[in-house]
Amino acid sequence: MTSRRPYLIRALYDWVLDNDLTPHLLVAADADGVDVPRQFVTEDGKITVNISPGAVRGLALENELITFSARFSGQSYNVSLPPGAVLALYARENGEGMLFGDVETTPTPPDGGPGGGTDDADMDDEAGDTKSKHPHLKVVK
Questions:
Q1: Exposed e or buried b for every residue in 15-46, given b needs 16+ CB within 10 A?
Q2: Which residues, 6+ apart, have CB-to-CB distance to 119 below 8 Å?
Q3: Per residue, what are the HEC states of 72-85?
Q4: pLDDT, position 104
Q5: pLDDT band at 133; cut points 50, 70, 90
Q6: Is 110 a residue whose pLDDT tops 80?
Q7: What would the 3-class secondary structure string for 6-54 be?
Q8: Comparison of pLDDT for 136 and 3, the residue scoring more
Q9: Torsion angle of the four alpha carbons 115, 121, 125, 127, in this order, in degrees rounded to the nearest 10
């Protein structure tokens, strides 16, 4: 199952802008795949970035990577980071937003491949697989 974090980031970004506020990202700068200017990273390994339309260029909030260009002390810098490195998205003016918690890493399927450990041979009836193929949801009253 894909991560919900990139979807929440896009939704919160739109919500903050719709309310005429300034969206900021709190990023774990030490997480894998994060490319930010290191001189602005705090001692605890975090960086806060204003991602409002007036502060960045070319913002792409994709499922696999967030990219944009921003100015830090007058110098342009191309920033890229995985959504899992975003710790929070909030409005500067009032702090409203969402804290995501720890860095989210991309889970590796048990066999190391994209299929999650099963292949077509495992799905054959002649292999003796008697597991139910029905959803595992229960009605809770």
A1: bbeeeebbbbbbbbbebeebebbeeebeeeeb
A2: none
A3: ECCEEEEEEECHHH
A4: 87
A5: low
A6: no
A7: HHHHHHHHHHHHHCCCCEEEEEECCCCCCECCHHHCCCCCEEEEECCCC
A8: 3
A9: -120
Taken as a whole, the chain contains a residue count of 141
* Alpha carbon distance 78, 14 (integer Å): 22
Phi-psi region of 88 (alpha: psi -120 to 50; beta: other; left: phi over 0): beta
The letter for the amino acid at 137 is: L
Question: pLDDT tens digit string along 60-93?
Answer: 999 999 999 999 999 999 999 999 999 999 999 9
Secondary structure element (H or E) that encloses residue 122, with its range: helix 120-123
Encoded amino acid at 105, one letter: T
